[in-house]
């Protein structure tokens, strides 16, 4: 195929892209730039006063045990959230891909939670896991005789937050995996079947490698979502408690920025979050060359 | 053609006429949600009707915090609202931000502002450095609510609510033993209650007389008063007497535990009297109210007024400031204070309003409001009950709730309080640096 230029000169391309560039500049690049600048200041009253403090905000972030705990919490949350969403998403998608009776209903039900706003999902979990009157503890108390303090125990509280956000996000993964599963080449699987491969062998040696581009895409999307979309769950379920054990980075940014009037600290945390997400995404794309196969 | 010209002339004349009678427009941002939004709206409409040359527009801006944030941001952009409702612990923050006009400076003798009509406890809080920087509006403090029906069943005197920490503990033990409720008592895990218990003991929360004699530089979170509160709270929790809804600042959660009969007692704001009375009626139990329980062997000092006050922002024309002041004085006059109290349960901030309610035998008809009033009227006037002025209250409250949760988790009280104290002092130091 010969190479053909779409535009005769680059001016036209630039003019056409201009509106988008303006929007990107105004709403994306400028705020990002401004955030970097603000992270070197102590900002009072949402910007009415400003003191240049150099890298003090960053030093605080990395030396204050409270912030160290936030980074640790975020790490635990993101790793378990992404791992569980991907694993369970794939499992459910494979199950939903079988043509059993009523498969349409199963697929619909699996996707359903994704359509709920996080705030609503959060409230549902709040009711379910209420220590005194929640349905979970009602059944646990009835059958086993225990009533755990779900939201006031540090480990259980983190568990509930992870569970809620996995439950909420799994629909997204199921949809994409399902689409990928339906596009798998039937002939390869058929050939494997004729050669006498077991179900597991077929899945592990054929299906899973063929799904790898989708897994990479979902890995990146889930990681980003885990960093940014957990706000509602933390705010509604625990407010970052007990004793800061479920305070995640994005929640801490909001709290420092809008509740404590520490805009500079919030900006510094945003920068850190920005860097983490950029590094992770680049890393995932780089490493993916070893395990993602795009061609059939 | 002639008719068209005639019509044009009429239109122009009308336009001219309306320009001549241009109303002064005032914006008022508040944080009163739910039914209270409609209530404020009705009051504002009444004002506009009786003051044809002023038009007030009230807007609900979300929580107290959101309202303050929105006001500061609007000021930065040059279109601040004329009047903002700010919660009491935001007072120092509002002062430091420098965007507000001291209210008392705008008051002239001919305004009949009756500034000494404000109930002394309330006046003491909002009179900073000798003057009202804002006008007190809605006030509340914590009282004990109890389920008289459950009290009777447990063999407790339904007309004698527990008054001290020890009495609460004993009542809880009886309630649990009788098996009438799974928990004895509940209240939201919130720094506000801790601040109140410190004041009740006559202790200070910060140095320089709670920041009233000079800017506070040291927060007292590891004081003896704090230890007493935490020890009692931990014991209640460890014995399974205190029902904790599971997350901090969960006002609704605590109310639900009480209303559904999970806990026989509840400590919460007086502004919930109306709500809880209706709930008690619906759930078929009798509601009682009493003073906030205090530590044993300590003279009851009283409570710090909660709630919010109304602030005027800088940067408006003289006519606008005059109109805003007219509105504020009307909004907080005796008649409207009485109306506000009856409609919401917040108590009126003027002595004359209390007198009107007494004349109407309001408290005989609604005895649940009694405790709220007496508790405030009996409050001693000292630096402890005047409440601390600190710019870091939102963060400080979080430091306190973190500490309580650590104590629940079994960490030694003294260590936790020392840690919290250090954190609070560091936060205050940083804050003070930004206002110099």
| Total DSSP helices of chain B | 21
Morphology of chain B: globular
The count of strands of chain A amounts to: 2
Low-confidence stretches of chain A: none
What would CATH call the class of the largest domain in chain B? Alpha Beta
* Arithmetic mean pLDDT of chain A: 88
End-to-end Cα distance of chain A, whole Å, is 22 Å
- Poorly predicted regions of chain B are none
The two chains with the largest interface, and their residue counts, are:
A-B, 34 and 42 residues
Portion of residues in beta strands of chain B equals 5-15%
Main beta-sheet strand count, sense and barrel state of chain A: 2 strands, antiparallel
- Helical percent range of chain B? 40-55%
| Order of SSEs of chain A | HEEHHHHHHHHHHH
Which sheet architecture does the biggest sheet of chain B show?
6 strands, mixed
**Alpha-carbon distance between the two ends of chain B:** 69 Å
Name given to the CATH homologous superfamily of the largest domain in chain B: Periplasmic binding protein-like II
Describe the structure in your own words.
The complex is a heterodimer of chains A (296) and B (436). By secondary structure, chain A is mainly alpha-helical. Helices cover 73% and strands 3% of the residues of chain A. Chain A has helices at residues 10-38, 56-63, 65-97, 103-115, 118-128, 135-143, 154-182, 186-194, 199-228, 231-238, 249-259, 263-287, and strands at 41-44, 49-52. A two-stranded antiparallel sheet of chain A has the order 1-2. In chain A, a hairpin with a 4-residue loop joins strand 1 and strand 2 (49-52). The radius of gyration of chain A is 24 Å and the shape is globular. In chain B, strand 5 (127-128) and strand 6 (131-132) form a beta hairpin. In chain B, helix 15 (334-344) crosses helix 16 (351-359) and helix 20 packs antiparallel against helix 21 (413-435). The longest helix of chain B is centred in the last third of the chain and has 23 residues, at 413-435. The termini of chain B are far apart. The model of chain B has no long low-confidence stretch (mean pLDDT 90).
